[in-house]
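Morning - iron/sulfur cluster inputs below, output right after.
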Amino acid sequence: MLITPFDPWKSKLCTCPKKYSFSPYTGCSHACIYCYITSYIPNAFKVRLKKDLFRRLKKELHKVDTFISMSNSSDPYVPEERDFKVTRKCLRIFKENKIKVLIITKSDIVARDVDLLKDMMAAVSITITTLDNKKAAVIEPNAPSPLKRLKALEKLHRNGIPCSVRLDPIIPGINDEEIEEIVDAVSSYANHIVASTIKPRNDSIKRLKKVMNVEKYEWIRYGNSFYLPKDLRFDLLKRVEKACRKHGLSFAACREGYKFKAKSCDGSHLIETRVIKDK
Ligand code: SF4
């Protein structure tokens, strides 16, 4: 199956609305140091095309009664997408079939598809974890620089596509000092911010050790993930919330058990703010 009901390992802390996962690619070459897809996808940082993708996708579209979230276990705009244009072709199919879409990406390639997105019930969520290019190159080695992501955000916003920003993950000692600065930087282009603290798994915690003093914290196991102590997590989230309030942005937290007032955590409520005129 290509389109599946979103189920984040049945986490009780998940506040996501009913939605469907769809990843045009298997694996993700952004190779983020904190990524946990390596815990369930073999060769996770190597991108593969899915067999017979478009025919299968069209066959499964009838299932979607809410919206598609693209993607939750890869990035729909991996560097390979520049040539392959697979995500672009999927967007065309969604557009023709009036399927609502939430795009989640770390790449500025998304701005290439502004011509399609302008006429779709779609919202885009761009992940920005740091404004420091050097830091980004360490934690998200193959993803476009923060500056490129900001420029993409600006272009999408200028074209009327509603955007949110994922400040995810917040890693103490790596990017926590930048929280207010990041919210300031995106505040003119985004309507909503969703924040999440680092939640490594067994495999990603090994990679994190290269950049973070993981032994410093008393991690709390929650399902397959390790959580930072609650007081620390909530202090970090409070700072994001306060910065959002300053700019009049809606705020949510992702799988934290932290109360928020935004209409959705993932920014999908922004899809409904679109008004598409029939052509
Ligand atoms: S972009 Fe997302 S899926 Fe891809 S490596 Fe980074 S965290 Fe993993």
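Note: The chain has a mean pLDDT of 96.

O.
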